[in-house]
């Protein structure tokens, strides 16, 4: 039938590359050289990091921002600042990057995994409510792929049970929930600036909060337990050196100038692509219609229905790649099935084992997440959405071609 799939030797839909990431230019070069020539390379000497913290917090309408070395440490410090300790339980989704749960373990607390909404892969508020025990102290919702989790429902549960909410917004720079920037809704929020993220400086992270007391704790914990007015060798709380350098601060200031327009562009292309894919059977983009949102689109997440294609997800992804559209199978191992959890390889953080003795993480009943990981979940990377409408047309054409030629997927390994 016509031009066969590229994976079967046909002509691919496209060979041109998509936009590369990160995008940078003279302003980044100038920022790095400005820091270099100033000789002020540490944040205690210069103003770049401090300026960025103020700008990023302002963008979110939040008074306080504390940058740290990455989006793992930002979660860990947020939990420390919230007073999470041995014996406490923290509710987390299982379909996320390791840090969302490992930060809980590193507080010597217990991550309690709860299942997802089937059409968004965000944490399911109804499942949160059912998982609450007298030990529950906090919830870490992840805005998966950049789609805001249902924060009104989550904050209402938190209020009823007196819990701290730390938004993991590592995927969600610039995303909005019912007109409010994500990262400004929970008691604290955590962003990552690791190189793949929608705002990046190679590595980095930030904690945002509207609570002065939490801010002061986070600020001290990222700087060796120092306090304002204290001596350099005076340390007050559990802490470390988690400061960003001025080079990272300079890069972040330059990248931040680009960010909002990039968020706007991805939103426009994401909506366009979602519409284009509507006619492709067996492909269901993340449902963004539960409430009004601006999607952050760190990922363009979609569900793949193997029964329509008669081939596993891995084969579909290979076929798409051969057509010139790179995609990924997503979190193929959910957190609760990672060896770390199956073997309970928690190092010195053993309080978790006393709180829930005998827990069998690998067999937790989390059917939506297990289905997503096993073969349903998949995504496109954010930089594709920085392309033009004609790039989106190519992506949709590749999906449609693989659907029309699905019989050719049989026996592909
Ligand atoms: C959802 C989520 N949370 C936290 C992190 C941790 O961020 P970092 O890699 O900066 O430590 C990531 C990064 O991949 C992430 O995707």
Explained architecture:
Helix 2 (48-59) packs parallel to helix 8 (246-277), helix 3 (73-81) packs across helix 4 (99-105) and helix 8 packs across helix 14. The protein has helices at 26-38, 48-59, 73-81, 99-105, 125-131, 151-161, 212-221, 246-277, 306-309, 313-322, 339-342, 351-355, 367-376, 389-404, and strands at 64-68, 89-92, 110-113, 136-139, 164-168, 176-177, 180-181, 188-192, 205-209, 283-285, 293-294, 299-304, 377-381. The strands form three sheets. The chain has a seven-stranded mixed sheet with strand order 1-9-8-5-4-2-3, sandwiched between helices. Strands 7-6-11 form a three-stranded antiparallel sheet, with no helix packed on it. It is built from 14 helices and 13 strands. Strand 4, helix 6 (151-161) and strand 5 form a beta-alpha-beta unit. The longest helix has 32 residues, at 246-277. With 413 residues, the chain is α/β, with parallel strands linked by helices. It is globular, with a radius of gyration of 22 Å. The mean pLDDT is 97. Pyridoxal-5'-phosphate (PLP) binds at residues 70-72, 96-97, 99-100, 142, 168, 170-171, 192, 194, 205.
Q: Write the H/E string, N to C.
A: HHEHEHEHEHEEEEEHHEEEHHHHHEH
Number of continuous helical runs: 14
Strand elements, count: 13
The fraction of residues in strands falls at 5-15%
* Strand order within the widest beta sheet: 1-9-8-5-4-2-3
Low-confidence stretches are: none
- Are any ligands bound, and if so which? pyridoxal-5'-phosphate
Mean pLDDT: 97
Helical content band: 25-40%
Derived from helix and strand composition plus strand pairing, the structural class reads alpha/beta
